[in-house]
Amino acid sequence: MRVQADALDIYDVEHDGVTSQHMTAEGNVVLLHRQDRLAGTKLSMDLGSGRGTMDNVVGYTDPGVFFTAKSVERIDPKTYRINNGRFTSCCQPQPRWSFSTPRATLKVEDHITAVAAHFDLGVPLTGQQLPLFFMPYFYYPVKPDGRATGFLMPSFNIDFNRGVDVRLGFFLAMGRSADQTFGFERRASPSSVQGSISPKLTHDLRWASDVRSYGDLHTALFPPSDVSPIQGQPGNKHWDWSLDWNAQQAFTGLFTVKLLANVTSPQDVLTPVNNFYNSNSRIALNLQRTFGWQFLQIRADNRKSVQGRPDWTITRRWLPGISLSQGSRAVGHTGLRWEYFVHFDHLNLSKRIPEIITNSDGSTTTGDIRPFDDSWSRFDIAPSVSLPLATTFLSVTPKLTTRYTHYTESCPVDRPQCGKTFTGGPLARRYAEASVEILGPQFARVFNGPSGYSDLIKHVIGPEIVYVFRAATDNFDRIPRFGDDADNTARTHEIRYGIAQHLWGRRKLANGGTRPFEFLTWTVYQKHYFEPPQYPVDGSFNTYLWDQSGINFPQLKRSPIRSTLTFSPFEQFSLNWLEEYDVNRQSKKVTRLDLGMDIRGPLGRLHANWSRSPERFDQDTQTVSFSEQNTATFSGDLSAGKWVQFGGSTDYTFVDQKYQNTIISPKGFISYSGSVKFDFQCLGLKLIYTRRLWGSLPDGSKNYNSSFQFAIELAHIGSFGMGPGGATGGGGFNLGGPR
Questions:
Q1: What is the pairing mode between strands 718-722 and 155-159?
Q2: N or C end: fewer C-beta atoms under 10 angstroms in the chain?
């Protein structure tokens, strides 16, 4: 501790026979202790105990807290009692914000507690204080690492359609690498207008001890309610819950354990946003360990998918699944490489989907729900050996694979491709597969590049050929289909041929060196089937091979033509274009297109993305289940001077949900917002307008929501305002609902 003053007097004081030294300092008194600093007009201190009092104080303590006070009493090196004080984190003579309190206690490098705290905004140039809000008790953490246990700033929202929404939160710091957050959300009373939501309790647990051990567990609880957030839907009669867990823990010398849970309670908690009926859920526990080149995995997995309507479901379970595998490894100095995998799975498949009815004209309609539930085991082993041969322009890799799969149940002989029960007894599938992959010969040429972009451009082009002969068993139709790739491997005799092109550039670096980069890749290929395929899905293509009625083309000899283009001339721009042409139906469709742009500059940022995803073939129903989905996203920020920033964003998503090739519910989601942010160093003000329109309600009306949000951001404090900003604050007024 160090004291400076214009005049300083040290003297002895005797009390009850004990003599102690006291100090009185006057005139420009400064008290220094580590990073803390107090300056005042007068200081009286007992040098023995360290207790003292300073008048008319201006002070500073880490991390970045300034304060003034009528008097400050020093209790010990870590504790100060402050009377009639004003605190701020602004360093300007006229602070942008501050709070005043008649009594506060400062625990150095820990916290400040204050009673009857009045928060004020500083009015520039006038020196006046504009009242903001009042708190009867305020806890202000001042720990150097910025992590402290305490209540988060509350937020509330005035929604003209649903009432008042209040969010509270409590943060529990458990060290530098672990914490918890407890949240409470109370919206309009369940007895009010349709669409209100009952209270919600949330809990978040996070930790990250190292790159192999981490966790993020989010849990939500929903009390019983008489109404639903979606008009026309029944309320929750029991306590509902929702889990979103993702965790991994590594034990030295033992297994690595992974936990994944994305599941809701049986009542299926509904919110307006998931009105797409996309309530897929999963819970899985995975144990992994590596033994040299061997990889062992033990898992329990439960997956539930919703097929267009909440009561149309398919559940798949691995209880358990055990696998042992080895990646490609050299066999001595022979040039050969070998690999293998061994899988054992006890499977359970449960379906509640409508029965497919084929009409006389070949069209299909949906009938009654056909329940299905069966369990069986599957043992699968597949070793392979390859001999890579490569030169500078040509690569040839022959490969031989054998595979044996044993099923404890199968479809009966008289009912192949059965869909109700597997009563055919044990079944074995054996096959050998021979393949040859030929890459090249590759041809290359170097050109002079455009000035300022690349001094040289290298063009590489060459054919790619893959020949496969698989002599699989003839009982393919009796295999019990679980829905993964293990059961879909059928007999085939095919050759895939195509051509690949690559464009490379070279840029100069600031240090005088150069860096090569690939800015274009274009691959086109097709397959020729010497025998018609046995299954309508080929993993090399997105387009299904059979017609929509499920009848195979006996004359099918050629696959669709697939073109894949990747173009990224700059780091800020990327284009991925996948297109397939079905030569059998003579139809062309863009099955995937992603266009992204991200430009940053001194005045702001512009981001744009547009994607078009393909339709998906449903292996359980043998039909197209979802049509193409279009998504567009645009966002940007623009700085107008030092203190003002404008922002805007828009999202558009549209999907036609299909079942049995029939559109059952066209869904769309549109969202756009605009914002303006004023940043006055330690004080920020943010205004946001957002409008959302998603889907259709069961009665056919549109569901929409409009909100105007605002937030006042105080440095080292957080944000305060009204609106759906979570437990940490946000702001606004909402207008919305069905119409």
A1: parallel
A2: C
Q: How far apart are CA 172 and CA 206, in angstroms?
A: 11
State how far the Cα of 437 lies from the Cα of 399, in Å rounded to an integer.
Answer: 8
Burial track 484-519 (b if 16+ CB lie within 10 A, e otherwise): eebbbbbbbebebebebebbbbeeeeeeeeeeeeeb
Under a CB-based contact definition with an 8 Å cutoff, are residues 32 and 58 in contact?
no
Choose which CATH entry (3.40.190.10, 3.30.2020.10, 3.40.50.300, 2.60.450.10) describes domain 2-141. 2.60.450.10
Q: How far apart are CA 230 and CA 234, in angstroms?
A: 9
d(CA 105, CA 80): 6
DSSP string, 262-326: EEE-TT----GGGTT----EEEEEEEEEEETTEEEEEEEEEEEEE-SSTT-EEEEEEEEEEEEEE
Distance CA 348, CA 317 (A): 5
CA angle, residues 35, 39, 41, in degrees to nearest 5:
160
Percentage of residues of the chain with pLDDT beyond 70: 77
CA dihedral 86, 88, 93, 95 (to 10 degrees): -100
CA dihedral 660, 661, 665, 666 (to 10 degrees): 160
The 3-state secondary structure of 252-280, one letter per residue: CCCCEEEEEEEEECCCCCCCHHHCCCCCC
By three-state DSSP, how is residue 486 classified? helix
SS3 478: helix
Contact 335, 366 (CB under 8 A): no
- Dihedral pair phi/psi, residue 698, rounded to 5°: -55, -25
* Cβ-contact 565, 577 below 8 angstroms: yes
Q: Are β-strands 281-291 and 294-306 bridged in parallel, bridged antiparallel, or unpaired?
A: antiparallel
**Which structure tokens are listed for 500?**
């690949």
Convert the pLDDT of each residue in 508-563 to its tens digit. Answer: 777 878 888 999 999 999 999 998 887 777 878 877 776 544 445 557 888 889 99
183, two tokens:
């949240």
162-186 pLDDT tens trace: 556 777 888 888 888 899 999 888 7
Q: Is 732 exposed, middle or buried (0-12, 13-18, 19+ CB in 10 A)?
A: buried
Q: Which of 14, 88, 3 is nearest to 37 (CA)?
A: 3
**Up-side HSE of residue 516: CA atoms within 13 Å toward CB?**
10
Cα-to-chain-centroid distance, residue 180: 19
129 and 162 in contact (C-beta within 8 Å)?
A: no
Distance CA 476, CA 482 (A): 13
- Domain coordinates in residue numbering, the chain: 2-141
Half-sphere exposure of 416 (CA within 13 A, CB side): 6
Contact 231, 698 (CB under 8 A): yes
Asked if residue 172 lies in contact with residue 155, where contact means CB atoms within 8 angstroms, the answer is no
